[in-house]
Write a structure and sequence with these properties.
five-stranded mixed beta sheet, single chain, D-Maltodextrin-Binding Protein, domain 2, alpha/beta, signal, about 35% helix, Extracellular solute-binding protein
Length: about 450
C-alpha cells in the first residue's frame, strides 16, 4: 500500500496571518483555493496550448463555481510549469520533499521506478496498454498513470518527387539533442528490431528478458549500419553535431524552413522520424494527397517500406506517449489526472493548439490532427496498425536508457564489429546492474513483456 503524503495546500491567507493583530475582530474572508501544480515537458507554443487548455478546464470545473460560507471563492486552481529539463527538475523537487502534484513523463521506466518506490498515488482507472499498463506494487496490480498525448514513431519522411531515390535513400541523420543526444539512433535500432523480429522479441528485449548480444538485437544494429552505408568522417561529425530538428542555411537570402530534409549540408532524401516532426514539414503529404510549399513538398510513409525484414511484421508500429502521474496525496490531483485524460480536455487541447502541433490521442474517437502528415499518422495510430509497441528505450530503467543513447553515438562513429561486440557487452552489464538480470527475470524496474505491445483501441 502506498504511503500517503500530507495533502499540500497553497493558500491566499498570508494577508490574514500578517494582519491578524491589527484586524481585531475584522478578520479576512475565507478566500482559500487549493493550487495544483502540473510539471510537464512542453514549452513554447506547445506549452502555451497546454496551459490554455488547463485554464479552460479549470474554468469549466464545477468546483470553480462554488462559494465558501463567507462569500469567497473556493475550489481548485491549476498551474502549469513547463521545462526541457524535466527529469532533473523532478528529481530535485523530490529530493527537496516538494514534488509537483502532477508530473507528465514520457518514460515508462521512470514511472515504474517511482511507482515501486511508493512515490506515486494509484489511480482508479483501468490499464491502457501500451501507454499505461497496470504495475505490480507490493503484491497489488494497479494503474499509476494515464496517457495524455501519444505519438507514432515508425515513419519515414521523404522529399516529394524523389521516386528514383526510394530504392536507395540518402538518409538524413541528426543525433544532437542536448542531454538526450542519441535518441534518434535508438529509434532506428528499436524500429529495425521490431520490424525484423516482431513484437514478442521486441518486448522481451525492452524488458530485459533478451540479451543485447542475441542475434535478434545484434542484427538490428548491423542492419542500421548497412542502411546508412559508407559515410565520410566529415559526414559522421556533421550528423553527431546536427540537431534532430535540422538548421536553416545562414547564407540564404531568406530563412529556409528547418528540418533535416531542408538542410543543404546533409544533402539527404529520407528521414526516419516520429510524427511529431511534422511541425517542421507543415506541407507533408501522404498517399491520399497534400500540398507543396517552399520546401518542395514532403511525404510520409510507414517505415516498413524501407526497412529490411519479414512482411509478417509490417503491421507493428513503435509508439511513444506523455503520461500524467500523481505525486501528491491530494484527491483533487487524482481528479485532475482523470479529467486530463478525458474527452473534454482532449477537445479543448485540440482547439487551443496550432494545426501542426495538435496532439495525437490514443483513441479513434478522440479529436486527431487533420493536417496531411498528421492525418496519415493518426489513421495508422488509431486503426490501420495491427500492433502498437511502446518505445523500448523509454520502457527501460533510466540508467540503461542513457547507456543505450551513449552506445548508439559511439557505434555511429565506429560501426565495426569489434566495437559493436564491446558496446553490446557493456549494455548487458548495465542491464544486470539495473535489476534486469536475464531471461524470465522480473526485476524491480521491469514491466512484464505483455505490457509493452497492444492493438489500437477506441478509448
Amino acid at each position: 500500500m502506498t504511503r500517503q503524503r500530507p495533502r499540500r495546500r497553497r493558500t491566499a491567507l498570508a494577508c490574514c496571518l500578517l494582519l491578524l493583530a491589527a484586524l481585531a475582530g475584522g478578520g479576512c474572508a475565507d478566500r482559500s483555493r487549493e493550487t495544483l501544480v502540473v510539471l510537464g515537458p512542453w514549452t513554447g507554443a506547445e506549452g502555451t496550448a497546454f496551459e490554455a487548455m488547463l485554464k479552460r478546464l479549470e474554468d469549466a470545473s464545477p468546483s470553480s463555481q462554488l462559494r465558501s460560507s463567507r462569500g469567497g471563492p473556493t475550489g481548485v486552481t491549476y498551474t502549469y510549469k513547463g521545462t526541457r529539463s524535466l527529469r532533473e527538475t523532478l528529481v530535485a523537487q523530490l529530493e527537496a520533499g516538494d514534488p509537483p502534484d502532477v508530473a507528465v513523463l514520457n518514460s515508462l521506466g521512470e514511472l515504474t521506478e517511482y511507482a515501486r518506490d511508493n512515490r506515486l498515488e494509484p489511480l482508479d482507472t483501468p490499464g491502457h496498454p501500451p501507454w499505461a499498463p497496470r504495475v505490480d506494487v507490493n503484491g497489488s496490480s494497479r494503474t499509476y498513470w494515464v496517457p495524455l498525448k501519444v505519438d507514432l514513431k515508425s515513419l519515414v519522411w521523404s522529399k516529394e518527387g524523389g521516386e528514383r531515390d526510394r530504392a536507395r535513400p540518402r538518409w538524413c541523420v541528426g543525433m544532437a539533442s542536448q542531454a538526450t543526444s542519441g535518441w534518434p539512433g535508438t529509434d532506428w535500432i528499436e524500429d529495425l528490431l521490431l520490424h525484423r523480429s516482431g513484437p514478442e522479441a521486441y518486448a522481451r528485449w525492452a524488458t530485459g528478458r533478451l540479451s543485447w548480444r542475441s542475434p535478434e538485437v545484434r542484427g538490428a544494429w548491423t542492419a542500421w549500419a548497412q542502411l546508412l552505408g559508407e559515410r565520410s568522417k566529415k559526414s559522421v561529425d556533421l550528423s553527431l553535431t546536427t540537431s534532430y530538428e535540422g538548421t536553416s542555411d545562414p547564407k540564404a537570402a531568406r530563412p529556409a524552413p528547418r528540418g533535416l530534409l531542408n538542410s543543404p549540408e546533409l544533402d539527404c532524401t529520407h528521414e526516419h522520424q516520429s510524427a511529431f516532426i511534422r511541425y517542421l514539414y507543415a506541407n507533408a503529404k501522404g498517399e491520399e494527397g497534400g500540398g507543396k510549399g517552399s520546401g518542395g513538398g514532403v511525404r510520409v510513409d510507414p517505415s516498413a517500406r524501407f526497412l529490411p525484414g519479414p512482411a509478417a511484421h509490417d503491421g507493428a508500429y513503435e509508439v511513444a506517449g506523455d503520461m500524467a502521474a500523481v505525486f501528491s496525496g491530494s484527491p483533487a490531483a487524482r481528479e485532475l489526472v482523470e479529467r486530463l485524460s478525458g474527452g473534454e480536455a482532449r477537445r479543448l487541447w485540440h482547439e487551443e493548439a496550432e494545426p501542426e502541433l495538435r496532439p495525437f490521442f490514443p483513441g479513434a474517437g478522440d479529436p486527431q490532427p487533420t493536417d496531411p502528415g498528421g492525418g496519415k499518422a493518426a489513421a495508422l495510430l488509431t486503426g490501420k496498425a495491427e500492433t502498437l509497441c511502446f518505445d523500448a528505450s523509454d520502457a527501460m530503467p533510466p540508467a540503461l536508457r542513457d547507456a543505450f543513447h551513449r552506445a548508439v553515438l559511439r557505434y555511429f562513429r565506429d560501426p565495426s564489429g569489434d566495437r559493436l561486440d564491446t558496446l553490446l557487452g557493456q549494455l548487458d552489464t548495465v542491464r544486470a546492474e539495473t535489476g534486469l538480470q536475464g531471461r524470465g527475470t522480473t526485476g524491480h524496474n521491469s514491466l512484464p513483456p505483455e505490457a509493452l505491445c497492444a492493438p489500437p483501441t477506441d478509448g
